Amino acid sequence: xxxxxxxxxxxxxxxxxxxxxxxxxxxxxxxxxxxxxxxxxxxxxxxxxxxxxxxxxxxxxxxxxxxxx
Length: 69
What we know:
Layout: H1 8-22, H2 27-38, H3 41-52, H4 56-67
Helix pairs in contact: 1-2, 1-4, 2-3
C-alpha cells in the first residue's frame, strides 16, 4: 500500500470494511474515512501508517472485503 497505490474511493471502502471488522470507533477506520473525505497528504500518511500497524489478519480481512466489491 504505497502512496500511489490507493485512491480516495479505495480508502473509503477500506474504512467501511474496518468498521465492520473492528467497529466504528476504531482509529484506523476513522483515519481512513478522514483521508478519503479530505484527500490531504497528511491525512493519507496517517491512515496508511495506522493501517500498516494493524494485525496481519485484520489487514487481510479488510483487503479481501474491498477486493470482492
